[in-house]
Amino acid sequence: MKDNGKFFVGLGGVALVVTYLIWTGVSETMVYYLTPVELMARVAEDPTFHEMGVKVSGRVEQGSWNRAEGELLHHFTVVDLLDESVRFPVEYRDILPDTFNDTDIVDVVVEGRFRGDGVFEATVVLAKCGSRYEATPEELLG
Amino acid sequence: MILLGEFALWLALPVGIWGAVAGFIGGRKERGDFVLSAEYCVYTVFFLLILTSVGIITAFLTDSFEYWYVANYSNRELPTFYKVSGLWAGQRGSLVFWALLLSFFSAAAVFTNRTKNREFMPYVVGVLLTISSFFLVVLLFAEVNPFERLPFAPADGRGLNPQLQNYWMTIHPPTLYLGFTAFTIPFAFAMSALLSGKLDSRWLVITRRWILLSWFFLANGIIFGMRWAYEMLGWGGFWFWDPVENASLLPWLTATAFLHSIQIQENRGMLKVWNMGLVTLTFLLTIFATFLTRSGLIESVHTFAENTTIAFIFLTFMGVMAGLSALLIAWRYPALKSENQIQSFLSRESAFLFNNLILLGAAFSILWGTLFPLITEGLTGTAIAVGPPFFNRVNLPIGLALMALMGIGPVIAWRRASRRNLVKNFLMPVIVGSMVVGGLFLRGVHHGMALLTFGLSAFVMTIIIVEFVKGTKARAHIEGEGHFLAFFHLVSRNRRRWGGYIVHVGVVMIFTAFAGVAFNREVIQTVDPGETITVESPFGHEYALTYQGLSSPRGQNMLRQAVALMTVERDGRPVESLTAQKVLYFKWEQSPITIVGINSYIFEDLYLILENVNDLGGAFENDAAAQRATFKVQVNVLVGWIWYGGFVITLGGIIAMWPSRGSTKTASRPKTKTGGERPALAVRS
């Protein structure tokens, strides 16, 4: 019986440790997942938001992508999916995924920090050719 | 053929529903004729779904672009290879494919049990056909009919997404689907056991091999996916904690837990409720995986188009299944009492239970992290996401704990381990593990978590090797056989146990490979032909890659490609050259696909990415002046051990699953032997 007690303490311990790992993991790695409109609203409300890690989903503005000569540095502009007047420039220093381009309609999720100078410094860029996966009948005709 | 396929799909639904009803009635009223009818329905649905699938593939092969599905996932020039895989390339086809595999496994389960285990079959058939019918309802009524026609026939299709034009496309999805669908069989037997009240361990004995089969396909499917992602740029390396990757890992984790906990039930008659819960949970997670892929609720590289109808239907189905299973378990709760109690903290039962709890903890943390944006958005209106850092942080310690248990579990005694048992089994492995840690530390490896991983690997490997050596020696001694023969007999007489150990070796290899990531190196450089990029690996090898320039050949269904050639020297000696490419596929002119070059060595991979060609248009035209390009060269440490580990897991899995005389004996052990009776009447017994 004594051992049984020990056993349940052990099980409880495992549960506690896992809970603790999840709790601290979430609180130390979580990022807000926003639209550009929401991001602008947050920043306007609270300037310290510039220091926070955020994840923003939007669309690549067509024709906005350029790549610095000689070094791996990409610039492009992300616009809000609904309100095209809301936009911000993005800086990214790594290899962009193949699905990324600025001639098609490309939805992106950028993760990083929206700096005080109004440039989004991205550490992760995920891209998806939203329009290219499945087409409407009208698109198929063309 | 196509029309026949469409007709077969419509016909399959009433057959499936009738079969399900007949199965339940047959079980309830003990009517053999109903049961037989239900079983024929299983075969019929399988046959009809073969016709449906052949119909879809025919539509692809004949370029029948009047079908919406074909028009969206194929084009005239698409290689035949990929036209066939069109069956699972998109939402609609993949649901048919799922239903097809499910009906195949259902038919196989009915066929292999046609003369035995008859008392389980009515409800098994009922449950299986209910699930099949669900998929058929989705296919026919959730706006995803693969035979939907366009009002006109386009001249050509849109083509298959070039990211899917990869040989893994024909291997990875089917393997994973086999794993997902195979688990429906153990679930059906579990539900049948609950419904019929035959609650001893028989349903486990019957489905043991199915569980292993499902686990085996899931493991391989996941590993194939890792390999594919490793070869594809922009998928974040072999594992990115993408929601759909996670969704495939979840049932694998719970199935792993289940594989272990059933051993406690078989050996000690404990954990009956737990096992019922786990089998239900795993089944629901396989459905959840397809739900997540198909609903488009969570951003992922895998998701098909967003479809709220499907999301709703799937959620309802999962809710109903979870509710019914829970009710059944609650109803049979008194009969599911444990026959024994845990006697000691230091026992195999206890180690297995901890393993279960930790695996479930991992599964829960991954599920939580995956759904976190949805949960927070629902609760607060603002979505909060967690990414790879969260999953790595949480699962690294969990993985290490699992490794430790992988060493402890198999050799610690049942019931209560004595001090002698502990010292005898663990002294040497602990010493070896510590020596590995010390040795690596002295050699300059100072990454704490990696050291711990390597130490634990050595610990587990030593335990397994000692087990094999001891077993072989003992057998050689007792039976007077040579060591080689003794080893062979040892493994073949208890395939499940030794196969399991071999699987553990594979898993340890994979965990070790994960730790290698901490030592990866990379260099990014823009070069002209003749220039050299050098990179040194952590093992001290020096690679020199000399750029030879671009060429532009043309392959099938590729619009254009730019191939960069690099000659490679390893430690001053020339080795195989590497090519890295940018390819423009027909119909997908906007997005060039990057194809990486990989040279694999035992302990590291040299990985070459053509990041950018300064003048891609010029390169496609074979313009001699357009040669300047930017490369990323990586040394990926130990990554090969993931694939080697995969092979070892496959080997161990096959050994464990291989039919043996011993196991048929255990399968027919139960008191009520029904083997000789006429199948349909056996339910009356």
List the defining traits of the structure above.
heterodimer; A: 142 residues; alpha+beta; OB fold (Dihydrolipoamide Acetyltransferase, E2P); 2 domains; five-stranded mixed beta barrel; 4 helices; 7 strands; 33% helix; 30% strand; elongated; B: 685 residues; 4 domains; five-stranded antiparallel beta sheet; four-stranded antiparallel beta sheet; 21 helices
| Biggest chain contact | A-B, 51 and 65 residues
As for the number of domains of chain A, it is: 2
Q: Describe the global form of chain B.
A: globular
Tally of alpha and pi helices of chain B: 21
> What gap, in angstroms, lies between the N and C termini of chain A?
76 Å
Q: What quaternary form is this?
A: heterodimer
The CATH top-level class label of the largest domain in chain A: Mainly Beta
Helix content of chain A: 25-40%
Main pleated-sheet profile of chain B: 5 strands, antiparallel
Strand order of the largest sheet of chain A: 2-4-5-7-6
The tally of strands of chain B reads 10
Class per helix and strand makeup of chain B: alpha+beta
Our Rg estimate of chain A from Cα atoms comes to 21 Å
Q: Which of globular, elongated, flat, extended, rod-shaped describes the shape of chain A? A: elongated
Portion of residues within helices of chain B: 55-70%
Describe the structure.
- The complex is a heterodimer of chains A (142) and B (685).
- Chain A is an alpha+beta fold.
- Chain A has two domains: 1-30; 31-133, OB fold (Dihydrolipoamide Acetyltransferase, E2P).
- Chain A is built from four helices and seven strands.
- Chain A has a five-stranded mixed barrel.
- Chain B has 21 helices and ten strands.
- Chain B has helices at residues 2-29, 32-61, 68-73, 80-84, 91-112, 121-141, 172-182, 184-196, 202-231, 243-268, 272-295, 308-331, 348-380, 388-411, 419-442, 448-479, 483-493, 495-516, 616-620, 640-657, 661-667, and strands at 383-385, 521-527, 532-536, 542-551, 558-570, 573-585, 588-595, 597-600, 604-613, 629-637.
- In chain B, the strands form two sheets. A five-stranded antiparallel sheet of chain B has the order 3-4-5-6-7. In chain B, strands 2-10-9-8 form a four-stranded antiparallel sheet, with no helix packed on it.
- In chain B, β6 (573-585) and β7 (588-595) form a beta hairpin.
- The two termini of chain B are 45 Å apart.
- The relative contact order of chain B is 0.08.
- Residues 662-685 of chain B have low confidence and may be disordered.
- Classes of the chains: A alpha+beta (142), B alpha+beta (685).
- The interface between A and B is large, with 51 and 65 residues.
- β1 (31-34) of chain A pairs antiparallel with β1 (383-385) of chain B, so a sheet runs across the interface.
